[in-house]
Amino acid sequence: MLFNSYTFVAFFIVMLILHNMPFPWKVKKINLLIASYIFYAAWNPPFILLLWLSTVVDFFVGRALYTQENKHKRNLLLVLSLIGNLGMLCFFKYGGFLLENFVALTNAVGINFHPAKPNIILPAGISFYTFTTLCYTIDMYKRKSKPVKTMLDFACDLLPSPGCRTYCTATATGTSI
Predict the structure, then answer these.
(1) Longest distance between any two alpha carbons in the chain, whole Å
(2) DSSP code of 46?
(3) Domain boundaries, the chain
(4) pLDDT digits (tens, 9 = 90+) for 112-125
(5) Which of 59, 81, 135, 168, by CA, is between 20 and 30 Å from 142?
(6) Distance in Å from the first CA to the final CA of the chain
């Protein structure tokens, strides 16, 4: 869905109307979250699964990091989050580059290796999303802030939709918009 398309304009108008209805704040956040997921999925629907996976894992890992007293378990949780998030980022951003260099290395030592082209598509906003979740996880590890209370607030804060981030962050901090 492009910003300059009639589809986006219609979508945006519907969301504005829904947001300005006299619904409770929680319903408005759910509308913003769903709208953000729809907007993101309109580009490439399977990538929404990456967002969901990262959101769920980092929400629970962050909570566990904050409450866990055992240093070994805290380190293990942090490593789990780092490997999951950075692994996903490295695969999508550098997968083709790493494969090409691996093929060049194997061919240089005399092994004739010709894998299929991976044709990896980079999900929109993956770096932003990954580093935002990593910042949260590291903050929980260092106990610089308290964990987000609900999955809804956490998901709203992570989405690459500026409207959702602004509204949910303002509500969580008690700031008026």
Answers:
(1) 70
(2) G
(3) 45-146
(4) 888 888 777 877 77
(5) 168
(6) 27
